[in-house]
Amino acid sequence: MKNAEISVSILDADFAKIGHIIEEIEEGEADSIHLDIMDGHFVPNLSFGPGFVKSIRKLTDIELDAHLMVERPGEYLERFADAGCDSLIVHLESDADMEPVLDKIEKLGLKAGLALNPATDLHGIDGVAGRLDKILIMTVNPGFGGQKFIMECIGKVEHAKRKICELGIDAVVGVDGGINNETGRMAAEAGADFLVAGSALLNSERLPDAIRKLRKECFA
Ligand code: DX5
Ligand code: ZN
Asked: Can you list the positions of beta strands (E) in the chain?
């Protein structure tokens, strides 16, 4: 059975209303909240840190996925684990040796994910693929919400699914960036198990309905 999960990125949310937004995310029965952590070095933007995540953790039991767009992820793993994250997704392109980072995430008892920028070849995960719970295919260059989906990345989603089957590993493939009902359907048809969506949901009339509609349009 294909996973058909929706993860809501709150990067562009009105943080003054985050309590209400989280209630709406729960009402829309999203599977997780996607926390875009940015350090201003790995990507040219700053977002929020462990303190904000800790506040969110107090408001909901939903799965919290931290997407660490940071140069040195190893330095932040404990802090985001303590803040209540359920999974930590690091970038292959960060300047960290993946083995010790994955060792640490395993020791923390959290799920481990690896994110790949659009220009990064999937072969980059070969050495550690067996240790991953999630592979996140970026369909925008990371740093900002509201960007246009990069169509050329669709092939990488299919390739990631083939790789998982060939290696017989128990990982899921997610797609992140520019996801809406149309691009989400293409990503799901290419094999995506979970879709990360931010602006397409946050800018909708009613967030709970938009979450349900995205799942229905993409995974039905
Ligand atoms: C971009 C982030 C994405 C982004 C998704 O660097 O990793 O999660 O916030 O937002 P939309 O859906 O608006 O592209
Ligand atoms: Zn993200």
From this structure: 5-9, 32-38, 63-69, 87-91, 111-116, 134-138, 172-176, 194-197
